[in-house]
Amino acid sequence: MGGHTIGVLGATGHTGRRVCSVLERSECRWIGAARAPSRFALPAPAAPRRGGSAQPVPRSRSTRSEIVAADATDRDSLDRFLDRVDLVINCAGPYTELGLPVAQAALSAGVHLLDLSGEQVYVRECEQLDEGASRSGVVLGNAMGVEVALSDCAAALAARGLSAIEGIRVAGAVSGFRTSRASRMSALEAIWGEGVRRTGGRFERAAVAHESRQFDLHAPFGVSTCAWYPGVEILTIPRHLSAATVATYIRVPAVASAPLKWMGAAAALPLRLASASDHMAGFGGNGGSGMARKGLRRCLRLVRNAAGRLGGEPCTERPSPFEIRVEVLGRGTSGIEYRGVSVLGRDPYGLSAEIVVRSALRLLEHGPAVGRGGVLAPAQVVDPGWLFSVLEPLDGYDLEVRDLEERNRDSQPPQAPGSESR
Ligand SMILES: NC(=O)c1ccc[n+]([C@@H]2O[C@H](COP(=O)([O-])OP(=O)(O)OC[C@H]3O[C@@H](n4cnc5c(N)ncnc54)[C@H](OP(=O)(O)O)[C@@H]3O)[C@@H](O)[C@H]2O)c1
Q: Which end of the chain has fewer surrounding CB within 10 Å, N or C?
């Protein structure tokens, strides 16, 4: 791996430790950074899995690695850490609270950054850094985890050869999944009323679960009810595909879709009311600068942090199966065409670590797939075909990309995503 050094911020977290473990297996030099470096330990080796042996897990760190102190809220400590690395993998979440200062520091230091965000607010904030990153050739790569990177890349593959894309739908399902503390906080952050949807070429606010629809997924999921949620793909896919409509859904129990719709509307209400009150007081609340809005966000974060601490840690013994379905409707050589791709696999956290590390190594060796710096989508950081070709053979994740054209050949093409909600 030449003379490159990769940094991992948030090295003590569930994902950060697995990222360090993948780096330890590579030939790369790496530096883990944490608020309390003494708490760092590589993850314990997992039991062998059905369908393949687990990736070997190193038991102790090599001399190619180091653990240092750094805090996302302390710019000096960040600068000292970034000064020693060529690329930083940011695993310190939730990103809406911690992500932007790290991206700003990486840009100032001229260091590429890859994150695993799933929060629209943070990803939208990053866009203000695009001009500076493009100018200096620095890559700020958002959302390089299972959630987003796989669907973003699958959408790019499915859309190849289509000249005008009317709509893209992404549906995700996971079974028996236990989330980490920061993931729970990130999820709560996402549902509190700041969601953006893309419809007819425009971005507009939308509440969680304002619509749901059915997807015919593979086993073990089958025909599933999926509710709309503010996925980051809504922001990343339009960075590389001119799709008029992009909608993201998550599998929910069928009986929950109606209650979730009401809960989503209720969750969105406080911030809307705060925006309206700021607007009336002349504070321009829609930009997030109003006093009522800021105060409310602070309260919501306290609740979110408390709620995020409840619940256990992810289980590495029984890795959860997942499916990501991507459907694209666009103009091909024979008129309007439907393209469907399903990505199936297991162990979302372990696979996220593989995705972000392999993308980091690729980026350092070959540069970004899109050939320029900037705030990039996963499919712009690495070539989507290359990403799946390195992930599919890995033991323990059972990753498989299934083309759905055959399955849907005899069925009517679906309506444009977003036009047939229940
Ligand atoms: N998109 C995807 O597919 C995907 C996949 C995996 C993870 N993620 C995201 O990645 C993030 C991390 O996940 P996780 O599983 O590692 O969560 P986690 O186990 O709760 O770990 C959070 C990490 O952030 C660190 N941290 C918190 N505040 C910090 C600060 N001020 N400065 C530096 N580090 C700080 C924590 O350090 P301490 O040990 O000091 O508390 C810990 O190392 C979450 O936002 C999650 O949603 C996304």
A: C
